[in-house]
Amino acid sequence: QKEVEQNSGPLSVPEGAIASLNCTYSDRGSQSFFWYRQYSGKSPELIMSIYSNGDKEDGRFTAQLNKASQYVSLLIRDSQPSDSATYLCAVKSSGDKLTFGTGTRLAVRP
Amino acid sequence: KAGVTQTPRYLIKTRGQQVTLSCSPISGHRSVSWYQQTPGQGLQFLFEYFSETQRNKGNFPGRFSGRQFSNSRSEMNVSTLELGDSALYLCASSLSPGEGQPQHFGDGTRLSIL
């Protein structure tokens, strides 16, 4: 069974700090990696996608991928209270379904 | 561009009944996936459709079924409802099932079983 693991949290950071969210996956054949943000009572919203090793930056968000270590992370710089949400890591292999982790709850303290 | 549209938004049913949920994907998207989300289990994959064909299926009983129409709209059906079927049902669409294609979610249908 292909698995995606995330620490459930909550991860608590002060406003303005860097939040670091981590995810590991079991399938070495995984090719595509996504981060979704889900506010309470809402549906998941795509934040970032990453497909090759290294860093990918988009505004305050940076996704990092290390396929050798089967590890993907999301950094949120200058965290804001509005970033408080559950962050879902999702992994896809060719021809297979998208597999989600259970999510990490982030709380940004004003 | 309109997003993924799911109807109805809320539904209350009783045990033993059946229910049909509808999903209209983003215009131009031909792949539709369905998920069940509960507080204890997170996002559980139900099935994925592309060009009216089921490509992948999750580990759910046969009471859960789905289909996709030629216009890419999709429906899922749950028969003989059980209390444990109470959940948020989410539909997501993508251009194709290719691995590089991100999925975009609708607002979901919240199903409550009494």
Topology:
The complex is a heterodimer of chains A (110) and B (114).
Chain A: E1 4-5, E2 11-14, E3 19-25, E4 30-38, E5 45-50, E6 54-58, E7 61-66, E8 71-76, E9 85-93, E10 98-100, E11 104-109
Chain B: E1 5-7, E2 10-13, E3 19-24, E4 31-38, E5 42-50, E6 53-57, E7 64-68, E8 74-78, E9 87-94, E10 104-105, E11 109-113
Parallel strand pairs in B: 2-11
Antiparallel strand pairs in B: 1-3, 3-8, 4-5, 4-9, 5-6, 7-8, 9-10, 9-11
Mind explaining what this structure looks like?
- Chain A has 110 residues and is an all-beta fold.
- In chain A, the strands form 2 sheets. In chain A, strands 2, 4, 5, 9, 10 and 11 form a 6-stranded mixed beta sheet that branches.
- Chain A has no helices and 11 strands.
- Chain B has 114 residues and is an all-beta fold.
- Chain B is built from no helices and 11 strands.
- Chain B has strands at residues 5-7, 10-13, 19-24, 31-38, 42-50, 53-57, 64-68, 74-78, 87-94, 104-105, 109-113.
- In chain B, the strands form 2 sheets. In chain B, strands 2, 4, 5, 6, 9, 10 and 11 form a 7-stranded mixed beta sheet that branches. In chain B, strands 1-3-8-7 form a 4-stranded antiparallel beta sheet, with no helix packed on it.
- Chain B is globular.
- Chain B starts with a strand and ends with a strand.
- The interface between A and B is medium-sized, with 25 and 21 residues.
